[in-house]
Amino acid sequence: MGWVGRWKNQYGSVLNVTEDxxxxxxxxxxxxLLESGFYGTEIAVCGTHLGHCISxxxxxxxxxxxxxxxYSGLLRGDRLNTVWHVISDGQxxxxxxxxxRAWPHAVTxxxxxxxxxx
Length: 118
Known about the structure:
Elements: E1 5-9, E2 14-21, E3 24-30, E4 43-50, E5 53-62, E6 65-76, E7 79-88, E8 90-92, E9 98-100, E10 107-116
Antiparallel strand pairs: 1-2, 1-10, 2-3, 3-4, 4-5, 5-6, 6-7, 7-10, 8-9
Keywords: Secreted, Signal
InterPro entries: Avidin-like_sf, Avidin/str
Subcellular location: Secreted
């Protein structure tokens, strides 16, 4: 099976896989969520896969600090079921300065389902 293609999740965010060779993928991700620190940019993605298992990640420096997002998923039928983690290094203090975010508040996790677009 090949991973190249445009994959859209339930919120309208898009994973566009443009390369798939030797167990590695590359492409871009663009979130549809306004509240995301990644909103407004198309971000380079890299990842690995084996069979129906896949993992990919991307990073960004934002006004609120550095971010990393990683997805891990499993293809079942036409659905790519994933879990993700976002790690946020910084936060804005009341004076709009970036300060270090405490570990217990630095991680967000959830699940998304992607469908390959025709």
